[in-house]
Amino acid sequence: MAFVEQMPSALSADAGLQQLHGAAAQVPRDATAFPHRDDHHDFLILSQWPDPADSARNMDWTRRFFEAMTPFLENAVYVNNVGDGENRAREAFGGNYERLVALKDTYDPTNLFRMKRNIQPSARRD
């Protein structure tokens, strides 16, 4: 609640929980790239503001809010919520990540399709 009280932009929607259950929880984890098939909730912080001059303040608030919540969260992320970084892609795809790397190695070894939720081919990993 402290973070809600400190929210720097009235356009932000605080935090939300999306419940994942039902048909999504009935698919085996390795049947698709999306592995998060347990009945659970997805935590998100919707932080938005109109003036670019307010970016630093809003981004700082969002990061601090997320860091404060991290101890209560599973080490996973819904793929549409992934920012930059291979570690977040690993969290998004869980145990399916290495299988997706093998597909990337076969069909996109030069990493032509590298925008958004990128999976690095083996040859390009640091």
| Helix content range | 25-40%
Order of helices and strands: HEEHHH
Average pLDDT figure: 86
| Main beta sheet strand tally, sense and closure | 2 strands, antiparallel
Measured on Cα atoms, how large is the radius of gyration?
Answer: 17 Å
Structural class: alpha+beta
- The dominant shape is globular
Q: How many helices does DSSP assign? A: 4
* Major sheet: arrangement of strands: 1-2
Distance between the ends: 40 Å
Low-confidence stretches: none
β-strand number: 2
> Approximately how much beta-strand content do the residues carry?
5-15%
Structure description:
- Strands 1-2 form a two-stranded antiparallel sheet.
- The longest helix is centred in the middle third of the chain and has 15 residues, at 55-69.
- Helix content is 30%, strand content 10%.
- The model has no long low-confidence stretch (mean pLDDT 86).
- The chain is of the alpha+beta class and 126 residues long.
- The chain contains 4 helices and 2 strands.
- The chain is globular, with a radius of gyration of 17 Å.
Which descriptors would you attach to this protein?
globular, two-stranded antiparallel sheet, 4 helices, 30% helix, alpha+beta, 2 strands
Q: Concise description?
A:
The protein is 30% helix and 10% strand. With 126 residues, the protein is an alpha+beta fold.
Strands, helices and their partners?
Elements: H1 2-5, E1 15-20, E2 40-45, H2 55-69, H3 86-93, H4 97-107
Antiparallel strand pairs: 1-2
